[in-house]
Design brief:
This protein has 100 residues and is mostly beta strands. The chain has one domain (5-99). It contains 2 helices and 8 strands, in the order βββαβββαββ. Strands 4-5-6-8-7 form a 5-stranded antiparallel beta sheet. A 3-stranded antiparallel beta sheet has the order 1-2-3. A hairpin with a 4-residue loop joins strand 1 (5-8) and strand 2 (13-19).
């Protein structure tokens, strides 16, 4: 899942915009982040698309490790992305990104 919008409500809840895997529809919901991501080691957060780039931040769920700024992820074609060692897909915009 890619979180495309996160509005802080408090330390455990946020409003998330995401694309549902089953229906393909973009949905928004308030979620308890602790339950939603309990099996995840980290979450990749992408900032807004500006001139073909999005700022990427890796947030660890252990509450100990600091977030890691990964720099820019560049918009690219699916074909190019899948040939790279590391890429990400944003289902809410149907777009692919690779680390810059």
């Amino acid at each position: 899942m890619t979180i495309t919008k996160k509005t802080e409500l408090d330390s455990k809840e946020a409003t998330l915009t995401y694309r549902c895997k089953k229906t393909g529809l973009i949905q928004e919901m308030t979620a308890n982040l602790q339950e939603w991501f309990e099996d995840e080691e980290s979450i990749l957060l992408l900032g807004p698309l500006i001139k073909g780039k999005r700022k990427a931040t890796l947030v660890y769920m252990d509450g100990i490790t600091s977030k890691v700024e990964l720099g820019d992820f560049n918009y690219t074609s699916k074909d190019y992305a899948l040939k790279q060692d590391a890429w990400t897909f944003d289902p809410s915009t149907n777009s692919y990104y690779v680390a810059g």
